[in-house]
Each structure stands twice: as C-alpha cells, then as structure tokens.
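FIELD: query
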Amino acid sequence: MRRRRHSTYITLYLLVTLLLLTSSSVLASSTRAPAGSTVRFEGMIEAIGLKKWVIQGVTVFVSPYAEIIEEGGQAEVGAWVTVSATWQADGNLWANWIRVERPAGAAGEVIEFTGLIERIETQRWVIGGVEVCILPDTVIEGQPKVGVPARVRARWQADCWQALAIAAYPAIGGEGQVQFEGTIEAMGPALWVISGVAVQISADTTVAGEPQVGRRVEVTAYLQPDGRLWAQHILVISGNDDRSRQFGGLINAIYTGEQPQRWMIRELDPAVRAGETAVLVNGNTLIDQSRAVAAPGMWAEVTAYGEDDGRLWAQRIRIERPVAVAIEGTLDTAPVGSSGWWLVDDYRVYVHAQTVIVGSLMTGMRVYVTGLMLGNGSIWAENIWPV
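FIELD: result
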C-alpha cells in the first residue's frame, strides 16, 4: 500500500547516499550537509510522534506532505525503513518519503560488513562498533582477537544482530601479521582509517602508489600488544580517481560458477544512455544485502574501480528490491523509438522492449503507468496507457 500525505507527487531526490548498515552513528557523526542537501539512509523506526519520528537514533520531521510507502509492511515502531530526507536551514532533517522494507517483528535480511574486533565475550562481540550476538551455530573462521579486522555476516533478529559467520583476516606471516583490503576514509600524520579500521602509520611504513581518501588499498599490518594495528606496507590499488565509478542498475545475471564472479548490470541513469556493464566480484567486495538478496531483477548500487585492461572490480554493492508502483500524470516528452527515457510529470520512466503500450501516446496526454520504482527514483515501466 502506498499512503500519500498529499494529492500531488513529490520529486524524489537522490543527491547524496548514506548507507546505515547497523546504526545511526554514520549519519549522526558526519558533518552536516548544507541546507537543501538530500540524504538517504536506512534504519528501524524507534518512535513515531505527531511531527517527529526517531529512526535508528536519527530524528526526522515528517510533514503531511511526506510520502509513506507501505508495500513492505505497516509504518510502525519496529519496522525497518528507507528514508529520503532533506536538510533544512534550521539544521532539521525533513522526510521526503519513507518506505517500509520489512515489517516490525520480521527477521531481517543478511548484511555484510568489515570492522575491527573491539570486544570478545561469550555471547556478544563488538566489531566495528556494532554489537553482534554469537549463536551456537555461528561459523567462526580464522583466529579472532581483539584488534584484528574481521568480516561479518549477520541477521537482525530479536533486537540483536545475530552473527551467521565471522571471518578474521588470516595471518600471512609472523605472529599477528594480517592483510586486508579497504577504502581510505581518513588520513592523519600517524593514523589512517581504512574501511572503518584504524591503522597506525609510521616512518617505517612503506606506501606504494599515491594514497588519497576514497582510494582502494591493500594493507599488510601487525597487531600490537595493545590491540592496535601498525601498517607495514600499504599498496594503492585504485590509482587515478577517474578509474573509480559509482552507478546503479538492474542485475541481469550473476555468474556464480566463475571466479571471480561476473555480474551483468543494466545501468539506468536518465543522464546517460542505458547499457549493460560487467563487474567482477570477489571476496573483497562488500555486498550489502540488508534490503534484498542479490539476484537478477534486483537493483544494485555499485562502487567499483577500473583496471588498465578495462576490467571493472566491484568494491561495494548495495542490493535493493524494486517497489511496485502506479502513477498517473502528463506525458512531458515525446516517445522516440521503442525504448528510452520518458518524463511523466516529475518521474523519469524507462520504457523497454517488454513495456506494454496501449494506444498511440503523444506529448501532453494524461497517461497511467504501472511498473517498478528503482533505487534511483526512476520507474521501470511495465504498462502505459492513456487515461
């Protein structure tokens, strides 16, 4: 069910994407964006007031003009939602739309993340600032220790991220030596943050390439007695910034029988020509499946970098399930050819070979469109007919 708070359609902005896998700390601790900037994040509804909602610790103002999309369940405390909101000049965050991904009380989909092991207890560990519950059937690989990076697969259940698997980065040499890949998030004179992991840098650290925030690196480090990591060697994998790419599209195929895996993704950006792109996926790719399981037909937000040989390696892939929608509006662009982008009111509608078009449609006509709303706010059209 799509519940509208007003009679006209709102424009869906996707200017800045903020991914919250497990907590609101990313949004709450980040530098506040300028007024008018739009953010997008996920989390659990913790409270619903007359005008204010608390979603994963973040206060979001919800006006009568906000759109509440409830195909995935009722918008209530305990439901997991995606939020699109805009910063106002007074520093408050106002919702454009809120979409329910999972109803309250439902088990969450599997998520994956990487972080430093901060605490190990019998039933609860803290990894990368996230508390995870250890179950009897949790698969633990490697030799996890406090201070060692680990990759986690977990599912939200009963007010806890229940660990399905925890894989500590394996030792590659002497005692406490580990190797991992990640993206540089911050750089200081003595400390770098690489994919959430704090790594000490000294004059003895060798750095190959030109490191910058946002670039992908391979780290060889030693675990110190105090639990901190000291980088012995850092290799910059993604050299030039123009090799990094971010795009969204529908997954056409996943070839799991190949190593690395090859994913075929149809890029769908109104600003560029639609086309299919191959990305390579290996064990270092972070695949966020908190909203949907990776499969053909799902929406994927991809961050990748290109090699000299033209291959595109995925660093992070976020999976979303397209939402069934129906809209009515004025056709503002004349159809050209059998496929391409149409504009219906403020919606970008992609017409493809399988779209069923009834009658002869012309600019200025009122039309009715059914299809799937994608992660970038556009619509993958299934049927279009005149009103």
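FIELD: remark
Confidence is low (pLDDT under 50) at residues 1-33.
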